[in-house]
Amino acid sequence: RTRMTTGSSGINAEYGILDSVDFDRDGTVRLEEYMQFMISRTTENVANTDELTEAFRSLTEGGDKPYITATELYAAMPPEQAKYCIDRMEKYPDVPGALDYTNFTKIIFQPNLK
Q1: Distance CA 30, CA 21 (A)
Q2: Is 33 exposed, middle or buried (0-12, 13-18, 19+ CB in 10 A)?
Q3: Which of 24, 45, 67, 109 is deepest in the core (most CB within 10 A)?
Q4: pLDDT, tens digit (0-9, with 9 covering 90-100), for 30-51
Q5: How far apart are CA 29 and CA 22, in angstroms?
Q6: Max Cα distance, the chain (Å)
């Protein structure tokens, strides 16, 4: 957990940033909240689970696989975002090295990550 504090200068800007990242408004930005914020910035035109699922699908080789690989994620995202996704995606059944992005997208759109 990282506690964000504000000084007398830039207080409005800092509260604006905190408001954008601190989804549960507890004054603490958890790694999950920060990564959700960063992923949402990467996919800012994505408004729902179906669109995010399609965004991940489009990153796959051929653009039509129901799973994604770590290599494909690293090619499409900054390393810290790719690692976050890889660490949280479940393995896709019966395909070595494949990750299930469909369940992951459902988690991203949960209002309060714990």
Answers
A1: 9
A2: buried
A3: 67
A4: 766 666 666 666 555 556 788 8
A5: 5
A6: 56
Q: What is the pLDDT of residue 48?
A: 76
Strands (E), the chain: 2-3, 28-29, 68-69, 90-91, 98-100
Low-confidence ranges of the chain (pLDDT < 70): 1-23, 31-47, 111-114
Our CA dihedral for 29, 92, 42, 27, rounded to 10 degrees, sits at: -10
Q: Which of 27, 17, 67, 59 is CA-nearest to residue 42?
A: 59
Buried-state track 41-51, b at ≥16 Cβ within 10 A, e below 16:
eebeebeebee
The single residue listed with the structure tokens 């991940």 is 56
d(CA 105, CA 89): 9
Output phi, psi for 111, to 5 deg: -65, -35
Q: Are 61 and 53 in contact (CB under 8 A)?
A: no
Helix/strand/coil for 28: strand
